[in-house]
Amino acid sequence: MYMKRSCGILMPIFSLPSKYCIGSFGKESRDFINFLQKSGHSYWQLLPLNPTSYGDSPYQSFSAFALNPYFIDLDGLIKLNYLTKEDVACEQFNQYIDYGKLYIERFKLLRKAYQNALNMNIKPKLEKFIKKNKEWLKDYACFMVLKGLNDGNSWQEWSDEYRYHSAELVSKIEKNYDEEYYFWVFLQYLAFSQYLKLKSYANKHGVYIIGDIPIYVALDSSDVWSNPDLFKLDENRRPTTVAGVPPDYFSADGQLWGNPLYDYDKMSKDNYAWWRYRVKKCAELFDSLRIDHFRGIDEYWSVKSGEKTARVGEWLKGPGINLINALKEAAPTMQFIAEDLGLLTNSVIELKNQSGWPGMKVYEFAFDSGYSNAFLPHNYEKNCVAYIGTHDNDTIANFIKENPSLHGFMKEYLHIDSVDNIIDTMIGTLYRSNADLVIVTIQDILHQGGEARINTPGTLGTNWTYRLNKKVFTKSLSEHLKALADESGRR
User: Fold this and answer.
1) 131 CB-near residues (< 8 Å, 6+ apart)
2) Any catalytic annotation for residue 263?
3) Which residues of the chain have pLDDT under 50?
4) Known catalytic residue: 340?
5) Which residue among 169, 202, 395, 461 is least packed, with the fewest CB closer than 10 Å?
6) Residues with Cβ < 8 Å from 417, sequence gap 6 or more?
């Protein structure tokens, strides 16, 4: 499988329509796959599928390996007799996700499903699942038990008894809190079972899944708690430096992500075993994989812990081609995509070329520096993935509305007279570009405004909440997308 002259759609699972509070791995996902197939689009790009934590961002998760329990299909649990239709009547479709309500209501349902599953002798299946995923699952389940015992607080705030991970502590938690421990295992068992069936369904219908992994992991995660030696932490397991990026297009203060930085010197001694295992597991879930913040493999922005913004920091040398080769070795069939956005140095460009991985082009960035702008379609090389915008961009309709100073060049470049024709003409030129793969969002195809934006980097509040109504997936929309694919020789 290679993404040659192809097209696809970026659609987060949470944005899918359903009768419940959030999209899932259930019928709405299969319906979307059917829609892609009918529309002549063979790629579905997802955002990270991991459990969300503070801020509800899929890029800040309690685990780099676990799946988000919110994506478990409730109708699937009804079919298994773990829940009834009456049980799920409390949930209903809303245009925006209310994560606070979801946290309260959904876990009540999942705990009820767990008790019913225990009565149906689910334990042997859970033990088998633990054995298959022992490298990460035990630590994750124990981590979640301990978060519950500590009122959901970060492990950085736990007492020394719990803060310092050990095999003895994990065994103790398994034994003393076995019911709660197996609850978190149960959720992963359900999520993986449903998702793997979904991926199989997609592939059988000619649709390939593009996954997305953040380059860093959250400080408040089972990954850092259970593998402190892999990160730049002090003797008390507090981060000495944290990740981010300096001031850029998205933020005048830069973006202070706060993730602990990897200790690449230690990682290199076992040829990046943690990373190799990570992408090996990803290869079970995805056909292609977008590596977020590719630049961090070449150089990464290091900010001293305690800084309030990312303005003050330093670029440090990353693992470079050694890590890339380790990832290729671990997942030889995976097609990687390098998220090479932002200020690119010659060394980053050289590393991407060495890797052979396609980079990213974002059309929304194309209109501020004339015809030489690398994001204008006539400048694309074949080995790239081209987007109207990503999950971090405003919708094109709102971008045009908020940037009237760019209208003149937009119309000049697109050879049109009216601002009203910018969106459709942009989309057409993107599909006809030289890029091997083109990815669009439904929001931009539908000309939706700022209310449909997925994320505004560096902010908290309304991000990651937008959902589409199922009424938008019409026959005429499918025919329009099919015409775009056919006219540009894509599939």
Assistant:
1) none
2) no
3) 1
4) no
5) 461
6) 411
